[in-house]
Amino acid sequence: MTELVRVLRGLRRLTDDPRDAFLHRLRIGLAVAALILILSLLR
After folding, report:
1. Which residue ranges run through the membrane (predicted)?
2. What is the radius of gyration, based on Cα positions, of the chain?
3. Counted domains in the chain
4. Whole-angstrom Cα distance, residue 18 to residue 8?
5. In Å, how far are 6, 15, 16, 17, 36 from 31, measured between CA atoms?
6. Which residue stretches of the chain are H helix?
7. Confidence at residue 20, expressed as pLDDT on a 0 to 100 scale
């Protein structure tokens, strides 16, 4: 569990620019969606 928290903290992005924060969240969301899709296709 500690490793998961460490990885998730590494994904956080601290920025004041809302556009940059949105793009970062969008990239992370797409990466997670692709991972879920790949895992579901492997079953």
Report:
1. 22-42
2. 13
3. 1
4. 20
5. 18, 20, 23, 21, 9
6. 2-11, 18-42
7. 86
Give the pLDDT score at 41: 96
User: CA-to-CA distance for 6 and 20, rounded, in angstroms?
Assistant: 22
CA dihedral 16, 20, 26, 28 (to 10 degrees): -80
Domain that residue 19 falls in = 1-42
pLDDT tens for 3-36 read 888 877 777 767 788 898 888 889 989 999 999 9
Cα separations in angstroms, 15 against 8, 23, 26, 31: 16, 11, 15, 20
